[in-house]
Amino acid sequence: MTTKTKAAKTEPAKKSKKRDMDGIMALDLPFAERTPAVKAYFDKCDEKIGFVPNVLLSFSHDMAKLDAFSAYYNDLMLAPSGLSKLEREMISVVVSSENKCFYCLVAHGEAVRRLSGDPMLGEMLVMNYRAADLPPRQRAMLDFTVKVTKEPWAVVDEDREKLRAVGFTDRDIWDIGAVAAFFNMTNRMAAAVDMRPNPEYHALSR
Predict the structure, then answer these.
(1) Residue 186's closest CA among 112, 109, 124, 95?
(2) Rama region for 127: left / alpha / beta (φ>0; ψ in -120 to 50; rest)
(3) Cα distance between the two ends of the chain
(4) Contact by Cβ (8 Å): 122, 72
(5) Which residue ranges form the domains of the chain, and what is each CATH number?
(6) Cβ-proximal residues to 169 (8 Å cutoff; 6+ apart), any chain
(7) Can you give the pTM of this predicted structure?
(8) Burial environment of residue 67 by CB neighbours within 10 A (0 to 12, 13 to 18, 19 or more)
(9) Quick one: angle between helices 85-99 and 119-127, nearest 10?
């Protein structure tokens, strides 16, 4: 008696559906329809740096949230301040170093390299800002930043007096606190959704 064995049928491999946020973050949220203002903003990003930062794309599931995030970010980091743009980026990197935020260390480490013209400074701030030969003003600023990040409950008048002693005004102290607080928030948001930096950042300003 002969038995016929049927050849096993091979099921074709199912292609995984491409998600809007693939390579950007872990959540499966579809892009919302872009407003004209957002389209213009993204076009400007493409023109200036050659890509749209993934942090902006991650907020693109909700135009109201993207607008709020962008407006506050641009005010903190680009508006007139007693802190230079470089100093604000230095704060962002040191906060992100304490929080081990991959996204912000890559993206803002590049900004420090670009604004300072010193790739070594960018690396030192990412690893350990204490290794950098910083002027007293910036060292005090970053010491305060770390305390706000690690022990906010322990910040006292003496800490603010140390900033005044190296020339910071009370408005500057507000700005240091605001930038440090903002990046503590964004670091935690990036960790919560596994936000990934654009690969282009790694090679820039080297």
Answers:
(1) 95
(2) alpha
(3) 75
(4) no
(5) 36-76 (1.20.5.810), 84-203 (1.20.1290.10)
(6) 82
(7) 0.89
(8) middle
(9) 40
Where do we find the tokens 């260390």? 105
Over 70: is that where the pLDDT of 16 sits?
Answer: no
Q: Are 124 and 139 in contact (CB under 8 A)?
A: no
Contact 25, 193 (CB under 8 A): yes
Residue 147 CB neighbour total at 10 angstroms = 16
- Record the tokens describing residue 1, joined without a space: 């008696």
Q: For 33-90, what is each residue's pLDDT tens digit?
A: 999 999 999 999 999 999 999 999 999 999 999 999 999 999 999 999 999 999 999 9
| Tens digits of residue pLDDT in 42-55 | 999 999 999 999 99
